[in-house]
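User: Watch each token:
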Amino acid sequence: MDGDEDVQRGPLPPSNLARRGAGLVDASPGRHGLALLARLLPLADAAHSPLEDDFLSLLLAARLARPLTNRRVCGHRVDFCWFEHRLVVETDGWAAHSTPLRFEADRRRDADLLAGGIRVMRVTRRQLLDESHAVIARLGAILLAGSPA
């Protein structure tokens, strides 16, 4: 792997960064800096969009429980999930969720998750930017209340 070639190509997508970083850690045990890289790798593919990155950063800054990210739940890939709380958070930007097909798919996903006993909290870009304290307060209350019976 030629480092200069990687720099010329630009930044790697998060999934490639995580895969290649894991390869470096496995291939070079004990090398300076790899312990830090190993600790950071779980964050590399944590989010798939800038909105997800922003939500995760807000969540971590508020010191709320860290969710699993981009996992399959009830047959759907969800942005964030806390299995122990039976909770999913979906971050919705208008550009990706404004078409009639996407709108219908989102509602179908919510119904499937609810049928599987999973609650869904949706957070929009505007809420994240303009009402971040309220978003964190609501999420914190849900997490504090625990999972539904």
About this structure: Helices lie at 3-9, 14-27, 34-44, 50-61, 94-97, 100-115, 125-130, 132-145. The first strand starts at residue 68 and ends at 73. DSSP finds eight helices and four strands in the chain.
